[in-house]
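To: structure subgroup
Subject: Chain for Friday's discussion

All,

I'm putting the inputs and outputs inline so they're searchable in the archive.
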Amino acid sequence: MKNFGVRNDEVRTCIPSSAFSSCDKLKNVTFGKNILLIEDFAFEGCRTLKRIEIPNRVKNIGSMSFLDCYALMSVVIGDSVKKIGSMAFAHCYGLKRIVIGKSVELIGIDAFS
């Protein structure tokens, strides 16, 4: 799978834990407007994922949700996100651009290590 998207008319509200863990060919992700939560390990080990834009309705990015996404270069976190879990973006060695929304209250340990 190279692309994943949640349509805006879907009622899905979260990306479950480990849903796309180790999807080596995943390059693009589009979140629908109803996604509120990205659970732990959701995209862990997606080594070819390049960009993530977390939409404004998401409230929580789980721990290690993007761990070991080596090719990730850009992360934009929407204004509604309140918590970024521990090691959420750890080992994303290609990360060059991070934009964090204004509502973040908690950034977990080693979130961007």
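Points worth raising on Friday:
The mean pLDDT is 90.
The radius of gyration is 12 Å.

D.
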